[in-house]
Q: What sequence folds into this?
């Protein structure tokens, strides 16, 4: 019984590490997209934000990514699409 508990505990700890790694990877991809936005590469940044939102839809940065996506469309002078993102 004690060994069974130990096995479940180890599996639990390993599953948490996977979750943390996924968050860190999502966070890293978010900041790469932000860097592209800050450098003025709006089309590339928009593509990166779309990919981020597809891959990490439950990430805490998803709302910020949507806002940056709207800003990308604004800077590319596609105002209707920027508005659509903001009202979704």
A:
């Amino acid at each position: 019984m004690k060994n069974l508990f130990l096995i479940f505990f180890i599996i639990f700890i390993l599953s948490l590490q996977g979750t943390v790694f996924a968050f860190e990877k999502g966070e890293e991809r978010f900041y790469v997209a932000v860097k592209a936005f800050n450098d003025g590469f709006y089309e590339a940044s928009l593509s990166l934000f779309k990919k981020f939102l597809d891959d990490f839809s439950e990430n805490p940065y998803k709302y910020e990514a949507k806002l940056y996506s709207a800003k990308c469309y604004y800077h590319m002078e596609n105002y209707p699409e920027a508005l659509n993102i903001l009202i979704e």
